[in-house]
């Protein structure tokens, strides 16, 4: 008898050839230059865009390795890269089951690594989802009220409302205006290494302790207790903040360029837009996973110390069908926190879509040729009244010209200048509060809280003054 295949035999992962390594490194480097696609698109040379070239490279690697993960050596490090979304999920699940999956790092387009908050979710009772809908509707009304003269909501105002929604859902009303909590969460998410993350997460957990004692929101309903509660709340709050801040704003833009189909309801279209935003623009487009111990995936042996690179956005673009939206959670398997985050984003987009009509002012989006990246901070989306009573202005609000006499227009111009000064002052205070020097002790955290509270008062005053200017002008 001749043995044709030994199922117990294992082999090393395939290794890319030198030229393939060079091209993959170049593809990683190209992500740092967002304008690089503009000349190709302007000339109609879509095959020369980053997305098209990367897809060709990934397809080549997939064909040369029979679709199996490939070991790549780049200027940014050595990685084992799955070339299929299903393979990536299966490989990570196997590593997780084997106890070999270590820390996950978010890889930014600029090449930086930021440790991801560990998976530790709070259970979500089904009845709690009704409260999420109500909270999302309230915050949607706040977003509509924060519109400028051109019907847009600034990125800063959007982040303020989205962060407040996330805190209300997870921790209750007492945490709604605790902007220091949001800044500590952002600081932990931008840590450069594990040591820095540990220090910043400790400061965040100290801040969370007061809200955990008071109870409220999901923490109160789920009756979360135990030493892991702070970590679970951090994970849940992190995912909700990402979903409401980034994904919901991107989904509004996609909703605006979708064809108006008569069959689906507004809610169905809004939910589909959130799913599409997650699939096209996952908040973590690439994640690196450390392998702590050797394990076997099918017939491939994975060594300890391997970095597994899951380029989620690239794998989604490579897929032949639309596929499922990737989970917001970095750990494979079910995550109630990730499900709650997506549910909250859907509820917010639905509430907005039922009240107003989103219109994308910038950038120009072609539904048949959507960009590979859509940074939410660069989006200008007008929220136009459904009855058409408010239409977006063709350009930004003009700078006030010197007025003759003391007409209402003269005072409106002065008032707009005052609002702009207040907004700039609020921004300077917030930038000062974000300095890492406040992270070291409780006194620093209290000082930062005072700065952020004053910044928030300035923002609210600016909004009131701008409303007064609008009234004077009309």
UniProtKB/TrEMBL annotation:
Superkingdom as given in the UniProt entry: Bacteria
Disordered: region residues: 389-408
One Gene Ontology molecular-function label: monooxygenase activity
Record protein name field: Uncharacterized protein
């Amino acid at each position: 008898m001749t043995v044709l295949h030994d199922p117990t035999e294992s082999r090393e992962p395939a290794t890319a050839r030198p030229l393939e390594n060079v091209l993959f490194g170049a593809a990683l480097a190209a992500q740092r230059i967002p304008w690089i696609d503009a000349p190709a698109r302007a000339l109609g040379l879509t095959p020369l865009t980053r997305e098209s070239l990367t897809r060709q490279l990934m397809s080549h690697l997939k064909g040369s390795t029979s679709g199996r993960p490939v070991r790549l050596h780049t200027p940014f490090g050595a990685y084992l890269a799955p070339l299929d979304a299903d393979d990536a999920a299966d490989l990570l699940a196997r590593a997780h089951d084997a106890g070999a999956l270590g820390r996950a790092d978010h890889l930014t387009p600029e090449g930086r690594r930021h440790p991801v908050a560990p998976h530790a979710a709070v259970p979500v009772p089904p009845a709690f989802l009704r409260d999420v809908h109500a909270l999302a509707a309230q915050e949607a009304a706040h977003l509509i009220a924060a519109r400028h003269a051109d019907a847009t909501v600034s990125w800063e105002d959007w982040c303020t409302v989205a962060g407040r929604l996330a805190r209300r859902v997870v921790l209750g009303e007492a945490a709604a205006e605790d902007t220091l909590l949001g800044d500590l969460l952002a600081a932990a998410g931008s840590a450069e290494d594990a040591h820095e993350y540990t220090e910043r997460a400790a400061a965040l957990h100290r801040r969370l302790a007061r809200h955990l004692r008071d109870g409220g929101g999901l923490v109160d309903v789920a009756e979360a207790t135990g030493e892991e509660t702070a970590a679970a709340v951090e994970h849940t709050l992190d995912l909700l903040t990402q979903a409401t801040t980034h994904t919901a704003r991107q989904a509004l833009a996609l909703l605006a360029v979708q064809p108006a189909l008569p069959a689906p309801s507004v809610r169905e279209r809004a939910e589909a837009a959130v799913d599409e935003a997650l699939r096209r623009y996952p908040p973590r487009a690439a994640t690196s996973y450390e392998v702590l111990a050797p394990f076997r995936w099918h017939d491939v042996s994975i060594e300890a110390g391997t970095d597994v690179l899951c380029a989620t956005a690239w794998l989604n673009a490579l897929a032949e069908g639309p596929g499922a939206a990737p989970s917001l959670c970095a750990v494979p398997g079910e995550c109630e926190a990730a499900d709650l985050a997506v549910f909250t984003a859907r509820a917010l987009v639905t509430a907005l879509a039922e009240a107003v009509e989103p219109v994308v002012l910038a950038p120009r989006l072609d539904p048949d040729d959507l960009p590979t990246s859509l940074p939410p901070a660069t989006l200008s989306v007008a929220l136009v009244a459904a009855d058409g009573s408010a239409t977006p202005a063709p350009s930004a609000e003009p700078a006030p010209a010197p007025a003759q006499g003391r007409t209402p227009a003269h005072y409106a111009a002065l008032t707009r200048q005052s609002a702009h000064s207040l907004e700039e002052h609020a921004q300077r205070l917030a930038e000062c509060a974000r300095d890492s020097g406040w992270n070291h002790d409780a006194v620093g955290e209290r000082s930062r809280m005072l700065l952020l509270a004053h910044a928030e008062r300035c923002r609210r005053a600016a909004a009131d003054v701008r409303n007064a200017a609008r009234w004077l002008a009309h």
